[in-house]
Fold this sequence. Notes:
Blueprint: H1 5-17, H2 34-40, E1 44-47, E2 52-56, E3 62-70, E4 73-83, E5 87-90, H3 91-96, H4 103-106, E6 110-113, E7 116-120, E8 128-129, H5 130-141, H6 145-156, E9 188-191, E10 201-205, E11 212-217, E12 225-228, H7 229-236, E13 245-249, E14 252-254, E15 264-265, H8 266-277, H9 281-290, H10 310-317, E16 338-340, H11 346-355, H12 363-369, E17 375-377, E18 386-392, H13 395-404, H14 410-427, H15 433-440, H16 446-455, E19 459-464, E20 468-472, E21 484-490, E22 493-499
Parallel strand pairs: 19-21
Antiparallel strand pairs: 1-7, 2-3, 3-4, 4-5, 4-8, 6-7, 9-10, 10-11, 11-12, 11-15, 12-13, 13-14, 16-17, 18-22, 19-20, 21-22
Helix pairs in contact: 1-2, 5-6, 8-9, 12-13, 13-14, 14-15
Amino acid sequence: xxxxxxxxxxxxxxxxxxxxxxxxxxxxxxxxxxxxxxxxxxxxxxxxxxxxxxxxxxxxxxxxxxxxxxxxxxxxxxxxxxxxxxxxxxxxxxxxxxxxxxxxxxxxxxxxxxxxxxxxxxxxxxxxxxxxxxxxxxxxxxxxxxxxxxxxxxxxxxxxxxxxxxxxxxxxxxxxxxxxxxxxxxxxxxxxxxxxxxxxxxxxxxxxxxxxxxxxxxxxxxxxxxxxxxxxxxxxxxxxxxxxxxxxxxxxxxxxxxxxxxxxxxxxxxxxxxxxxxxxxxxxxxxxxxxxxxxxxxxxxxxxxxxxxxxxxxxxxxxxxxxxxxxxxxxxxxxxxxxxxxxxxxxxxxxxxxxxxxxxxxxxxxxxxxxxxxxxxxxxxxxxxxxxxxxxxxxxxxxxxxxxxxxxxxxxxxxxxxxxxxxxxxxxxxxxxxxxxxxxxxxxxxxxxxxxxxxxxxxxxxxxxxxxxxxxxxxxxxxxxxxxxxxxxxxxxxxxxxxx
Length: 500
């Protein structure tokens, strides 16, 4: 872009007249810098301090990213990443760039000179929505790198690079939000979740198809970010390493270009939805436990007729799929099962504390005394659950509360359980120590719950807002007085159930 000397002088004069708005450090003799500043103003424009902010990069380094608002448009921004000591490059230009670097690129898309930030006037890329960038930065601050990458791929088509493209470097062209699959013109259906909450899921038809759908869940209470339910299910079972997301920006839904999971059958999803709309959670849960919703399958995934009443069988049978029967032993969820619940004695709690290498405290008894129910229905999830005020994403803090009355023993509890679990799995030859640490050290999976139930000689039942009722431990004898932990898991946090 050619700018005559008069334009450059005018820009310099405007900068000097409001210099305090651009400086983040004091300069004694700014006039002596005029030749250098004039040269910069030919290709770059200065940015006021209020119009940019430092951010975090994918490597979680602070001040390695700069977010700059567009001129007179605070709703859109450009992101710049730091490379080397002083090089700053536009994330979107670098992501979509396929041509070789120009001489202008060699001096960077963004400059920080004498306490002033300058950005390149011309860009070959489109700016990004500020709300989108804020969400990415939020994930980085929470160290949720996979979620940030998944969101970038969903909206942009590919993730940002942390290295600027140089001459002769091969690059794959990504896709901007404007060229993503725009779902605004396609049918979107709000679904009711299993605990009868509306507006927490989206059913979206697949591209050029009305028989296949994807179901997305707003599990994190974030109105803009929606996880693919099937991707999430496979991720929890370690069948995939990534959860694909859709994003809602300015009334438009953007969906991923590809998934590692199969789409779901629209007819089956809507039958399931019908049961939820009618408030019949038992039928919905029985259907979810007995069949596969995957499109293109003939329901060979363990349908058990005894788990479904005639109404469900008629509804599912009308979808032109073949239903296959399995043995009674493969039934996952019984049609009706009421289990006794008894509060543990002081002696029992002391035994568990000893096993966990923590000190028992009488304060734990007060929490158990607040529990009012004496039996549990392991099929029908209660519509009204009252929980203890303490909520946390850390399951070990819940154990600490139940056994000591405080959450401060969670590190010791985690250490004891993980050490015992590692020793069992490694000594049996099931897994190596290195692989165990990679898979199980910083997460809580179904394997963890199953081991904890066995290790502590207890039963665990979790009312899960997404997956329904989850049970771990021995649940064969309804009259058993085995210690039972009844918890709730909604919106990503655990809590102790007091009544329902």
